[in-house]
Amino acid sequence: MRVLVFVPYYPPAFRGGGPIRTVSAMVAAHGDRHDFRVLTRDGDWGTTQRLGVPADQWVPSGRAMVWYRSPGLRGLLTALRQARRLAPEVLYLNSVFAPAETLLPLLLHRLRLLPAGQVVLAPRGELGAGALALKSAKKRALFGVSRLCGLHSDLVWHASTVREADEIRRAAPVRGTPRVVVAQNESPLPNRALRERPAPGERLRVVFLSRISPKKGLDILLAALSSSAAIPPLDVSVYGSTDDPDYLQQCHRLADRAREQGHQVRFAGTVDPSAVLAVFAAHDLFAFPTANENFGHAIVEALCAGCPVALPDTTPWTPTLDRGAGILVASREPDDWARMLAQLAAEGPPQRAARSRAAAEVYNRWQDSRERDSVFDRL
Pairing mode, if any, of strands 58-61 and 64-69? Predict the structure, then answer.
């Protein structure tokens, strides 16, 4: 089966987070059975720097052929001409809102200018309530236009979990009931959790590793640190990049207030994907006040490294946390996160080591029980 994939970013890009890892893992897992062609940008999220790969030509990358389009209209039109020539059995899109990688291909397909046997759209968590609440007016306007012209009609929606399937059925901009296929995301992680990690210290070591954006909730974590004098001094490391300088400045102001309370907060920049497990292994808690995750690659990576996770009920991992993999926080309000941090900071190294072992055991059970069918098997 020939599968043409439109995705905003693809390796060696990595700043764009989960969708990059999801699509590259899908190609690695099923590229021996399907002919994957990937159309993407010659760049990475939050930066104008080029990737240093051959642009505007087909380049072998793992089990796929990838077209890294150069910036500007000319690069986009050249890539679309390539897409039209391929006439794939499946056109696979990876966002609801990406203008060049979803909306334009959908429009061309509806105008019969981009032939494909079947169109599959993976929202990647964009139809969750928390995600839709961000820039909601623009999204409502787009959905109204889409329903009017049928832009999202006659396609299959790929949900990573049953929870995301329900989100799609509630929010998809179509008339009637959308067609949804549920297939869990592939993961390039090892089958067993890491066995060795640094021993816990006296201070709780907290990490935030994600894109620095309002959806991911770094401001909530930092506000929690300065909202309560009951939290003993913590070591907090922030990894990630942003395309929102105003939000980053807000987070730095909140970090300064947290430092006034005695907490050590450092912004460590981006981390290479090959070093992510080592970063999580060096910490006692992954604090992630995200508004919505359809899967959450960083969550799985933390568990693989034996790092417990603190999450609100906005991800498909709530039942996993109940089995000992971390802490379910009542809301995204800073006060609730402050209470959680105070509770964990009061624990000693033996209790932290036990939480780490529990997180690793939950990861191993997840690997043993997870389904291996791809979305293409289930179409």
Answer: antiparallel
